[in-house]
Write the structure tokens for this entry.
Amino acid sequence: MKIGVIGLGLIGGSMAIGLRESGFATHIIGTDQNPEHAAKALELGLVNEILTLEKTAAAADIIIVTTPVNTLNYLVPRLLDLIQPHQVVLDAGSTKHPVIEAVEGHPQRARFVATHPMAGTEYSGPTAAISGLFRGKRCVFCNAESSDMDALQAAKAVYEALEMNITYLEGADHDLHVAYISHISHIASFALALTVLEKEKQEERIFELAGGGFSSTARLAKSNADTWIPIFTQNRDNVLDVLDEFINTVSQFRTILIKKDFKRFEELIRLANEIGRII
């Protein structure tokens, strides 16, 4: 099985590692518009060779696009223009409705499977790629009914090789739910980091006193803006909706503190503890 990976950062590189380690991929072709990333991916052994987009499309059985979401709307249709009817294209974007709309009506639409492997770290680039990143995590397939059955089976085989669990959603529903679960978490982390940097001017105190709670909450603030600005742009309306609710909740805590109503504070904390039943 020849696999093409377009975008050799954390996700693409980690997928390459996982597919090679599982024995699913016999040959991995890499493509990246950043020459340094391409060279580093080759040096690290993430891929067997680096080719252009056109040559990757000609050579690979399955092509996985792991570039930022603002590139998917033109890259995926371009790949569908280039491939043969037996090939399959997957994307790994964190937003799904825009790319699904971009390929609507394409003659080879059925060779595309819209997927979102929900895994990652706060790091980026080929050096961030790690083994086992996807193991036990969830992958969402969107609008699966628009893909050929054999294309779906190929996509399932990819994510099963990565040891992921699969969920099926419509693209618009996916974007709504990830705004609640994933996207707001990053905004909250960015906001916390900015707050601490603004109020605590002694950097050594942050380093000395940051315990597990702060470190785990602020971890996402180290995420790459080049990845997240396109996500917030494409999922703006859903993110605004959940952000309004988040601001309202934080305001409740502020009001309670002003009133010294610690009984109500305790009630809200206990309500929040209910998340433990789910995760």
About this structure: The chain has a mean pLDDT of 93. The longest strand covers residues 112-118. The beta strands are 2-6, 27-31, 49-50, 62-65, 88-91, 112-118, 138-142, 165-169.
